[in-house]
Design goal:
single chain; mainly alpha; about 75% helix; elongated
């Protein structure tokens, strides 16, 4: 397990969580649906967990497919409780994609490739 990768992807999860909060705090959807501080915290924590899961995952597939799939998997439970299910779920996939893309260039993965 690469600890540098785990720290990097978790930190990127924090950044994407804060970005998700920042982009939604003044949107008409959040105002109409009554986003509370608990929902805001849940969104940020969802992205942090996404980053952590991407960091610890040992699944050896294409890194972009890995990010999209894990993003969909981690964001799905919270998406059921969001006012706009599809937007939140697709945003989770996008965050997973971007976290994997950025971490691929920041951290050298030393695990052997799957045959």
């Amino acid at each position: 397990m690469n600890s540098k990768r785990i720290v990097t992807t978790t930190f990127l999860g924090v950044l994407f969580g804060v970005a998700s909060w920042f982009l939604t705090k003044n949107s008409p959807v959040s105002a109409a649906s009554g986003f509370t501080s608990a929902v805001t915290l849940a969104v940020i924590l969802d992205r942090v967990i996404l980053g952590f899961v991407l960091g610890i995952s040992g699944w050896r597939v294409n890194y972009l497919v890995h990010g999209i799939f894990i993003g969909a998997l981690v964001s799905l439970p919270l998406a059921f409780f969001m006012p706009n299910f599809w937007v939140f779920w697709l945003t989770g996939m996008g965050c997973g994609f971007l976290i994997e893309l950025i971490s691929k260039f920041l951290v050298k993965d030393t695990r052997p490739a799957m045959a």
